[in-house]
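hiii, so i know i said id send this last week but things got crazy w the move. better late than never?? heres the sequnce for the chain we talked about at the cafe, plus the structure i predicted for it. fair warning i was half asleep when i ran it
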Amino acid sequence: MNKLDLIKVYRAYFTAKAKPELVTIEEAHFIAIKGKGDPSAPAFAHNIEALYSIAYTTEPVTLKQIAAFCEQNKLAKNGLHHEIYLSDFRRTSPEKLKTILREPVK
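okay and structure toks below
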């Protein structure tokens, strides 16, 4: 059985800059534990993302930067933000943790 490494196949989806930027996510199949709407629908294609790379306590600061980016670019939130954890919190010290925050916008 071949191992599928999504980080290698979809490298662009697992990288982000510290400064918020608008990204387009191609159509894909998703599983959601909670939420509504089809994440593959065009309404979910545009997202703002930003990398934060210190302890999880800095997440609110990054979310404020994303909100400011939305306001500057006349974008509206289109659902709840989601997080892509790039580090394993069990093996990584808090100051080295990296997470991508992705906010759907319209």
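btw The radius of gyration is 14 Å. thought thatd interest u
miss u guys!!
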